Amino acid sequence: MFVRRSAAVLAATAVIGTAFAPAALADESPSASPSLTLPSGLYGSTDPTYDGVWRQSLALLAQHTVGVKPAAKAVDWLTGQQCANGGFAAYRADPATKCDARTQIDTNSTGAALQALTALGTGGAGAEAADAAVKWLKSVQNEDGGWGYLPGGASDTNSTAVVIGALEAADTDTRDLRSKDDRTPYDALLGLALPCGKGAGAGADDGGAFAFQPDKKGKLAANADATAAGVLGALGEGLVADPEDDGRSAAPSGSAECAGGDSPTPAEAAANGAAYLVGAVAGTGHLESALAGADDQPDYGNTADTVVALAAAGRTADAGKPLAWLEKNSASWAAASGPAAYAQLIFAAHATGADPRDFGGADLVKQLGATGPAAASSDPSAESGQDTKDQDDNDKSEDDGGVSVWWIVGVGLVGGIGVGFLLSSRTKKQRQP
């Protein structure tokens, strides 16, 4: 679904033939080049080449979730990024230039933008943009029912989940959305879930988890990031999970039984994935980074996603430990990462009924607002405290927190780098097929 990692070294590798050392990845994303002028409607002060649409979409969606009406120019910037066919690329520096065969439109940017535009209910051009995005996403569904990062790419759990959430938000019945091979998105997800008792390597411990993709031999490896995405996708949920949603299939707190054997239903697969996540955060309260050279480092973004997934699966009590860890430890990460990181934390707080305006003593809504144009308005009962930010100022907040794994895949494709080497702080090991 959503992955994050620094743009620092990855951006530098976007030259074919450039050598890449995974250990060189850092937690900070690069500041915008001195020659790069950022649009005034864009959130974040760092180079948006690989995550502009993603971070903008998450920022707008998070503001809507807490009752803040984003600035019109922020919404206009997002709609202006859309290609004529309805899809979105990660970033288009010159929206006036038509998209062509060289424009790498991807499912993740498109899915995130669709969720934001649908939530905002902008009408007019916004509604047209959402309709066009729906049509494009439907048009690039794989025969197995799922989606890859780029059209025609092998289906993966994260991309499939992002698209499910986006289409459901746009009132599309994904349970009856069939590919040319008569497969649904849920068929694709279930094919990426590790069967009970048949975990990869570690035995039954990984049963119920989701893999990102099969490896070259078709083997599935448990991936915490993909599992958080898979839980949300299997439940038909998007990036935002509302607290106390009685419509969800809840799993009893503390339940660890893996249900469904080799043929779980989507609801069973979601419950199994949630049980795996509970175990993954049981010790420290957080997930560990899967980045090479980042041993024993916390994975803040994926931990926030895990909180949302657990809450969506009806395990809000089990989400309490990772939520408390985030409240205590995520401030520096969010400040260094920028708008998408603040949005992730807002989604985690919202899903569990916590107050995003008092998250470990921090006002996430105000902090998010300070990374972009001043909001048009906010809920009068909840002061947003937003500050106006000129993109040419010396704002030091950075934005690697919302870069999706799909963003990383995109960098790998541009730079000719195997995705197996590009490990995000939101994913466990992944490979490019």
From TrEMBL:
Residues 1-26 form the signal peptide. This is Terpene cyclase/mutase family protein. It comes from Streptomyces tauricus. CDD domains: ISOPREN_C2_like. Residues 392-401 have a biased composition (Acidic residues). Residues 373-385 have a biased composition (Low complexity). Keywords: Membrane, Repeat, Signal, Transmembrane, Transmembrane helix. The chain crosses the membrane at residues 404-423. The keyword Transmembrane applies. Residues 56-169 form the Prenyltransferase alpha-alpha toroid domain. Residues 239-266, 370-401 are annotated as: Disordered.
